[in-house]
Amino acid sequence: DIQMTQSPSFLSASVGDRVTINCKASQNINKYLNWYQQKLGEAPKLLIYNTNNLQTGIPSRFSGSGSGTDYTLTISSLQPEDVATYFCLQHSSRPNTFGAGTKLELK
Amino acid sequence: EVQLQESGPGLVKPSQSLSLTCSVTGYSITSNYWGWIRKFPGNKMEWMGYISYSGSTSYNPSLKSRISITRDTSKNQFFLQLNSVTTEDTATYYCARELPGYNYGFDYWGQGVMVTVSS
Question: Which of A89, A58, A77 is closest to A20 using CA atoms?
Fold first, then answer.
């Protein structure tokens, strides 16, 4: 199975900050990487698919980049409603595997 | 709008079977792939398996022969059965739809149902 190492586990930032979250795969996943946001008690929401494609309805402050084994989710200007847990999913091969999540809070 | 809702018992005894239902509205389960995912205490997530638009299935080898995913197209529901559960199966269970195509990850998820395995 492909292992996904996500960092950091916890992140505290201020409104307006640029925030980056990383996922590193144990092997090349050819950009088959999605990012999700999950707020407490809610269903996970797809933000980015295939590394850098913004899902419909997601604000443009969210973006994704990466290739090979290293991928990044960026929030360009943190908003209060972005407080949530973020996780990555590789879908390069089955079984699909997930990052451990990053809990983002406001400073 | 596509919506998914998990349902089932919140408490299961060790060695028994865990059975969950995913009810889908706004989209037919005879299209796309439909999966089960679980999130353990401590937040590790595991892809469990899927059932396809045609009814074919694929499972995580880690679950060996304990898992079965089936469906009822007349009710637009699909189901998870996990046999011989232990306390290690305590988790929040999610159902989700895969993006159109094959193996593109999930777009719509349910809110999840917490299942505790305990005597």
Answer: A77
Tell me which residues of chain B have a pLDDT lower than 70.
Answer: none
DSSP state of A50: T
- Kindly tell me the sign of the dihedral angle through the C-alpha atoms of A35, A101, B62, B57: negative
Q: What pLDDT does residue B102 have?
A: 79
Residues B32, B100 contacting (CB under 8 angstroms)? yes
The single-letter DSSP state of residue A3 is -
Under-70 pLDDT residues of chain A: none
Give the pLDDT confidence score for residue B60 in this predicted structure. Answer: 97
Contact B113, B37 (CB under 8 A): no
Q: Closest to A34 (Cβ–Cβ): which among B47, B105, B110? A: B105
| pLDDT score, position B78 | 98
pLDDT at A17: 98
- B60–A contact, CB cutoff 8 A: yes
Please check whether residue B98 is in contact with residue B50, taking contact to mean a CB–CB distance below 8 angstroms.
yes
Does the bond joining A59 to the residue before it have cis omega, within 30 degrees of 0?
no
- Quote the Cα angle for B14-B18-B22, to 5°: 160
Instruction: Tell which B residues from 20 to 39 touch A, by Cβ distance under 8 Å.
Output: 37
In the numeric block, the tokens 């559960």 are attached to B85
Residue in chain B lying closest to A9 (CA) = B43
DSSP string computed for B19-74: EEEEEEESS-TTSS-EEEEEE-TTS-EEEEEEE-TTS-EEE-GGGTTSEEEEEETT
| pLDDT-above-70 percentage for chain B | 100
